[in-house]
């Protein structure tokens, strides 16, 4: 099983409930187990249209048998199930955003997925929860 770190964020709707629903969906992924969950923090949006609400963010440490692109497909399915459209403007408000921050010691750069996540170290709203669970 590969140890992976995920970042979650939401700034639309009932944010706490959406995070809980996302955690439940991730728990139900076959061959995947949540090891550790950070505290939930609130953060201001970075980029995007003015006037959007603040985000709730969290990080997860998981173990999974899913390969990186398969894990990504499952996470995108969870996002859509929770109401995120398949296409959306960059930095627009989001019902749910789930990013793979790290996947074991892999480095990957494809059109669909970059590991480690290219912006992980420059975002306080990612690093603060992540540092809790490392």
Which helices and strands occur, and which strands form pairs?
Layout (H helix, E strand, L loop, with lengths): L1 E9 L4 H13 L4 E6 L3 E3 L11 E10 L3 H14 L15 E7 L4 E2 L4 E2 L8 H10 L1
Antiparallel strand pairs: 1-4, 1-5, 2-4, 3-4, 6-7
Textual characterization of the structure:
This protein has 3 helices and 7 strands. It has helices at about 15-25, 70-80, 125-134; strands spanning about 1-10, 30-35, 40-45, 55-65, 95-105, 110, 115. Strands 1, 2, 3, 4 and 5 form a 5-stranded antiparallel beta sheet that branches. The radius of gyration is 14 Å and the shape is globular. The two termini are about 15 Å apart.
Short description:
With 134 residues, this protein is of the alpha+beta class. It is built from three helices and seven strands; from the N terminus they run βαβββαβββα.
Index terms:
single chain; 134 residues; alpha+beta; Alpha-Beta Plaits; five-stranded antiparallel beta sheet; two-stranded antiparallel ribbon; 7 strands; globular
